[in-house]
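Trying the structure run again after the queue cleared.
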Amino acid sequence: MIRSFIMLILLGFGVIPLSAQNSKKKPVSLHGTVSLGLGAFNSQNYPGRQPSFFWTINGNPVLTAFGIPMPINAMVSNQTKSLQVPFSQLGISPNFKWLKLHLGTRNLSYSPFSIAGHSFLGAGVEMNPGAFRFAALGGRFQKAREADSTSAIILRPAYKRLGYGFKVGVGKKRNYFDLIFFKAKDDSSSVSQQAATYRNFTPDENLVLGVSSKISFGKRLSLKIDGGGSLYTRDIRTNLLTDEGENNFSDIPKAVNRFFPVRIGSSLSFAGEAGLRYQSRPFQLGLIYRRVEPEYRSMGAWFFQTDIQQITLNPGFSWNKGKVRLQCNAGWQSDDLLNLKPARSQRVIGGFSLSLNPSEKFGIDIQGNNFQFTQENRYLNSDSLRLQQATRFFNISPHWLLQSGDRSTNWSASVNYQQSDDYNPYTLQTLRSDFVFGQVLWSLQHQKKGYNLGLGVNGRLNKNNLAAEDQSFGLLANAGKLLKEKLQIQANLNWNVNLRDGASVGYTAGGGGGISYKALKTTRLYLNAYYLSNKVAEHKYHFVNTSGGIEYTF
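Done. Tokens:
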């Protein structure tokens, strides 16, 4: 009932301006596609992955009412059926000068550590008259759901979660200071008693106080600071912490308990980020420090990587109208901020990306990065338990395009190299691995004559000290032709051979094609077939898949 009422309000907001602007258009229209497909599948020496015969009916109608599209995706087959109605979540955000409203299903962001893009069903408002900044929201952040063990994916139950928050600040886009408040709580009576006994399933409560600020020093340098403190209770059914009785905890101010009842399962954690950015025409530089304590969470945000502190440096350079672009990054990260773990981990990351485009015909992209991981146990001082690993990656991808009238030819290549090293003296000789992959692709397309061709080769090498050296080499080809803008033909072939220490251990070969014919302006017929042969050691497998059908557009 509530959702229907909100949807009527949203349609009302949309009808007034849209009907005035589109008075000559139909207020309600329907369009989309409906298709019927038939297929057959056959396999040899391998269990069938799908039925030998299958049929599918697909419908994708789109109802447009006063400029608001409402699509429906429906599918029925001899294996399954589904119905998706995306417009069941509907929202609108009308604005007038410095006032903006939010109604329906919305996701808003006040700061990274408080309200950060979490969807909710409700209402909100933003007001920015001059230097004053104010925003508020409230609604349902989570819908109640019972446990479902009958579906393919077992769904955990969920409590109904209601929340509200506001933001008050001063300033504008380049310089501002905001204070943020957010509170949310689960309704413990919104699910059945059976669902409430689900393992590790508790009704929670959360209060977050945040700050967000930006200061610009001239036109090129700016400082941005975000922070948050989160009071979180894992189970609102536990006893309160008071200054009397056996749950004595006199350090908690009474003012805190008025806004947020502190219980045995309550915890307080902090998170923050500070970023300094310099921006000029040829050069840019970013320096960011981020710290998130263990178990930090906010019901107004989806997910946080917790128990980390990190520093990242991101210099960049652009020259000659973007024909030369260089972007670099370097960072350091560690965990165990509160000294609660037996081992502390550190990560060092560095990388670059270089793009060279001297002309419209030729360009080359080069990328490289290095990732190093170290972990030491503070209680067990043994080299055999020390982890120190490094992974390096390098890629080079040139591309060349030749355009002549309606004909275009494209060459592209790519070579990837990845190396993994282990510096532990006990595993140094066994955990080294190298991986190389390369490919070259050529394509030709003629717009006027309606044909396209493609050829490609690829190779792979995988080497490590624990197993034999693996290689593979392959070829691929494809072609297509459009006849009289009604009949379209496509075909493709591929072949790969797998080697181990130079000896063949198998192959993969396949090919297929398809025909599509536009019989009428709104009707299309199609037929596709594909064959795949696979050999692994002494075993051979064959698969044949054919499908066809008719599609109607209205």
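Residues 93-306 form one domain. Worth checking whether this holds up in the mutant runs.
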